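Example record used in the benchmark description.
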Amino acid sequence: MKSKEPDVIDLGNRFRRLGMRFTPQREAVWKLFRDSRKGYSISEAIEVLKDQGIGMATVYRTVIALQKIGRLHRVHDQSGEHRYVACKAVHGHPLVCEKCGLVLEFPSCDLSVLERLLAVETGFAITGHHLEVLGICPVCQA
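Model output (structure tokens):
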């Protein structure tokens, strides 16, 4: 019997905490995103996974759950379409190449000073943030 990968075991536990089963279909959705450096749009993921018998509703629900537990980021590609990329850190941020769509994750971001300043200036109780950094990767610069 093939042993499960650590990220798959972790996701199974996280899905159960949400009251959801981590089915083989959901595992396939996760692995599609996990194994891609540029991510997929929902429509692309549906197209790739349909041959495995995975339906549109499963893809949508799994993407939503993976976002909720912090394992998928939504990024904007060059055409403005939403793409989803896997993140390894529970709190990481995407660095997106504006030319080729390559997405790298950077886990460090200390925005605590900015969050405190915004709380003081606006009266908001800051509960978190989303950050996407755009640029041009070294290959596209060449």
